[in-house]
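A common beginner's mistake is to predict each chain separately and then try to dock the pieces by hand. The better habit, illustrated here, is to supply every component at once so that their relative placement is modeled jointly.
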Amino acid sequence: MEQAISYTLDSTLETVDHAEEKASRIATELGFAEDEVMQISMAVREGAVNAVLHGNAYAPDKKVTLAFERTPEDLVITIRDQGKGIDLGCIPNPLAPENLLKTSGRGIFLMRSFMDVVEIRPSQTGTEIKLIKHVRGSSAAGKEGSQ
Amino acid sequence: MSMKLSTRQVDGVTIVDCSGRITLGEGSVMMRDTVRDLLAKGNKKIVLNLGDVNYIDSSGIGELVSAFTTTKNQGGELKLLNLTKKVHDLLQITKLYTVFDVKEDEAAAVKAFK
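With all components supplied together, the output reads:
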């Protein structure tokens, strides 16, 4: 992979699969371990699901931007949609007993479980999700910065 | 690899052999339709054999929860069998492992129905 690469994708289910495949390929090329590749590709899949379903709501005129950037310490993945922006205050804790048997609402939780840093920036013109995985052996280990 | 499902009967229990991916879209829909069809036909003892399921996303997890609650609400029982490590780990971190009745052996799963 080059230092940075980005894709503009339609708001379709195929985009979700393509985003996952691209993440898996790039993470593999960058030398992440097999379980880390799975975590990264799954987090990207969940981010893409959010963008396509909840952000753009499958609207054909709205696009999803998926960007990968390799820094010395991190793989930084950014997923942007063109929706109304999610309300972070309305995201229930999926681990709360009253939510355990809900059939949805685990996407952001899984992203946070699998990545080192997850930043979610909603705005009126869309939501940006930044997913960061530290390169093993870099100094920035841990889960600090997760919002 | 897309989702494949097949059903068989063992001592009055319906085993649903699942393989591939349970993800948003086709995989989740197939799972939902299969469980609903079984319940509609009166098959209320269901085992989902997930031994060949190599990938599941949050939609797939939601579908497992839906299958579990739908079956329970109709007076039935649903158990999970042969979880792969990936699915096992996902159910652990989502705290669903203890919600589901998980079995590692088909004979034990069948026997466990009242």
